Amino acid sequence: MSETLNRTQIVARTELKETSKRQQVGILGGNFNPVHHAHLIVADQVYHQLGLDKIYLMPTYEPPHIDHKTTISSELRLDMLELALASDDYLEIETLEINRAGKSYTYETMKTLTELNPDVDYYFIIGGDMVEYLPKWYEIEKLMSLVQLVGVRRPNYPITSEYPLIWVDVPLMDISSSLIRAKVAKGDSVNYLLPRDVINYIEMKGLYRDG
Ligand SMILES: Nc1ncnc2c1ncn2[C@@H]1O[C@H](COP(=O)(O)OP(=O)(O)OP(=O)(O)O)[C@@H](O)[C@H]1O
Ligand SMILES: O=C(O)c1ccc[n+]([C@@H]2O[C@H](COP(=O)([O-])O)[C@@H](O)[C@H]2O)c1
After folding, report:
1. Nearest C-alpha neighbor of 202 from the set 187, 184, 189, 188
2. Is 178 in the pocket of ligand 1 (CB under 6 A)?
3. Which of 78, 94, 165, 209 makes an SS bond possible with 58, Cβ 3.0 to 4.6 Å?
4. 123 membership: H or E segment, kind and range
C-alpha cells in the first residue's frame, strides 16, 4: 500500500480488518483482447496490498462504451485468459458477463454477484483511464453502494476522482491490448508484454494480423 494513504483509504482499510469474516474479493473487469502482463500485475498487486481473498478477471461480452471498438469472440479471449492464469490459484476467471451476453454493464453484473454471494465484499478494480469515465457509467451511484471501487494508476491519466476510490500503487506500465494488437499487425515483437503461452496462442490462431 502507498505511504500516502488518504482518509478514504484509511477508513476503507480499517473496514477491511473489521469485516475480516466476510470474503474480500476483487474483480478486474475488461475486454482482455488480449490479456497482458499489466492486467496480471494490477490483479496481483491489488490482491496483496489490500489483503484480499481472491481476484477474478472478468471478461466483458460486449464492452459498454458507446464508442468502443469491436472485439474478438469471447471464446478466444477466454482461452487466452485461461492460459495466462493457469499457474495461479488466487487469480480466477468470472464468466458471468460472457454467459449473460449483451452489453456488459457493471452495475447489472455486480447486482447479480452481490445477490448470489451476500457474504462477499467486492472491490471493483479500474485503471486510471477508466476513472475519468466513471461519471458516464450506467447507474454509477447504485454501483458504488454495492462495491468498493479501487483505482490503479495508468500512464498519462490523472489520479483524482470525485468518487471515493481506494488508490493502489502499481508500477506505471505503458502496456495495453491495443499496443499489442498494433505490434502483432506490424510483425513487431511482443515478447514479455504478455505471457509466452498467450503469444503462442495468438500466433497459432493468427489473431490480430490484420490490425
Ligand atoms: N497498463 C495498465 N495499467 C493499469 N491498468 C490497466 C493497464 N492496462 C489495462 N488496465 C486496466 O485493466 C482493465 C481492463 O483493461 P482492458 O481489457 O480494456 O485492456 P486495455 O489494455 O486497456 O485494452 P485496449 O488497449 O484494447 O483499450 C481496465 O480497468 C484498464 O484500465
Ligand atoms: O457499466 C458501465 O457503464 C461501464 C462503462 C465502461 C466500462 N465498464 C467496465 O469497466 C471495465 C473495463 O472496461 P474496458 O472497456 O476498459 O475493458 C469492464 O468491466 C467494463 O464492463 C463499465
Report:
1. 184
2. yes
3. 94
4. strand 120-127
Please indicate, yes or no, if residue 21 is contained in any of the structural domains. Answer: yes
> How do beta strands 23-30 and 91-93 pair?
unpaired
Count of domains in the chain? Answer: 1
Q: What is the CATH number of the domain that holds 107?
A: 3.40.50.620
Q: Is the dihedral angle over the CA atoms 52, 56, 62, 63 positive or is it negative?
A: positive
Q: What is the pTM of this model?
A: 0.91
Of 103, 131, 137, the residue with max ligand 2 atoms within 8 A of its CB, to mutate for a pocket test, comes to: 137
**Phi-psi label, residue 104: left if phi above 0, alpha if psi -120 to 50, beta otherwise:** beta
Domain that holds residue 127: 3-205
Classify residue 211: in a domain, yes or no.
no
CB 143 within 8 A of CB 47: no
ipTM over 0.85: yes
Residue with cell 465484499: 121
d(CA 67, CA 83): 29
Which run of H or E residues covers position 9? helix 7-18
In a domain, 120, yes or no: yes
Tens of pLDDT, residue by residue over 156-206, are 777 778 888 999 999 999 999 999 999 999 999 999 999 999 999 999 999
Residue 210 lies in a domain: no
